[in-house]
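Moderator note: this is an archived Q&A kept for reference. The question asked for a predicted structure of one protein chain; the sequence and the answer are reproduced below.
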Amino acid sequence: MFKLGIVGAGIIGRDHSAAILRNEDCELVAVCDTVLERAEEIAAAHKAKSFTDYKEMCEQVELDAVILNLPHFLHHDVTVYFLEKGVNVLVEKPMAMSVEECDSMIAAAEKSGAKLAVGHVQRYYSAYEEIKKIKESGKLGELKMITEVRNVNYLPGRPKWFLDKKLSGGGIVMNYGAHTIDKIMYVSGEKVVEATSYLSNPLSDDNVEINAQILLKFTGNITATVTYCGCPDTRAYETVFYFTNGMAKAAGGSDFCVFENNQWVNYGGTTDLLYDQLVEFVKFLKGEESNIVTPEYGREVIAAIEKIYAD
């Protein structure tokens, strides 16, 4: 049984702890958060130890792996610390704030022999897994284009670090773009080679964007357009994959539909994102074939985001 620790006991940390509770291969033995009460709340359900300092947690508890749910600016340093201690790491997306940081994390994993994975969970929605199968089967011909539109009232409730580019690495592109790029790379099997973008923040003086219109070119002669609008209260979330003989459309979850033979066919699915990811992470730790996101892949996502910001 793998002894796991969690660093960062917010909403995502609680969800990770619930997934661990249901996995027979894992045991949560330690929880760390700068707010002790939050760590204690999660730890109590697992009879785990609580800490406010991740270094103390590492020194005092035997750990096989840690799950890091932290502000983006902490991803690199905390990941490298645990890797250098020989502890395997699953770090939430985005992997880091720059390709340079990603390279440093990969080097630390290679030097220590500890394993590093990145938490891109939306690939585990059954919609994207099924659309990937459609793409690989050739059922609808060749994949040529992708469009994604996502509207959300982005600013309310965000912590201060989220709205400071030095701490977050960017705005809606860094946050949601990491999901979008992963989904497209996962389904297509290709990577971003060019990016054109227009970014803005019409609602505040924060130095992060909340609106984005992006054109991406992928290897394999595939293109994608991505539109994020962080202004409206009305939500929209739709990703469409255009093939030579049909289309597949997902709405940000497990359900999706396919257009073939001049009609739409609806499909349902079930998804348990963090549990499914944990299953893959355990396989990764065991040295088995796994669908977990490798650090090299996570680096490609950050490289694509850097191309968007550089335009």
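Archived answer notes: Residues 122-271 form a domain with the Dihydrodipicolinate Reductase; domain 2 fold (CATH 3.30.360.10).
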